[in-house]
Amino acid sequence: MALLKIDVAPEWVDYNGHMNDAEYARVFSLGVDALMATIGLDDAGRTQHRYTIYTLETHLCYRREAHQGQTLVVDVTVLARDQKRLHVFMQMCDSQGEVLATSEQMLMGIDTQTGRPAPFPDAVASLIERLPAASYNEWPQLAGRRIGLPSRP
């Protein structure tokens, strides 16, 4: 499910002539904002439900360079969820569908009055149910990766 379509801004380009690594994180953060709006947690929804989402963990993989003016499309797949967490996989693609980066994230629902984790409000949970989801054996190939150096025997 496409969440966001955005062009690479000139100020996002670094001395190497392509989008700076921190800007990939920015685009995925904007993708989370778009996801929140999709599930009813835009400004009005956060106020109404007294609820928001925090990012607990992110695993970002850089696959290809993005350049100034290039159109980026961010999509999302839910890998797993429970009553207050979402494990999501986002892809950033160019306009031809080439994967430029991926971001696997663990998101936590937070009651804004207590500042503590809390179950998704019913209206939000019902919208989450409509998001594209993948069972474990259908996860995207780049999901669930671990970072580390190969072991030497």
UniProtKB/TrEMBL annotation:
InterPro entries named in the record: 4-hydroxybenzoyl-CoA_TE, HotDog_dom_sf
Pfam family membership, one: 4HBT_2
Gene3D superfamilies, A to Z: Hotdog Thioesterase
Protein name, entry field: Acyl-CoA thioester hydrolase
Domain of life: Bacteria
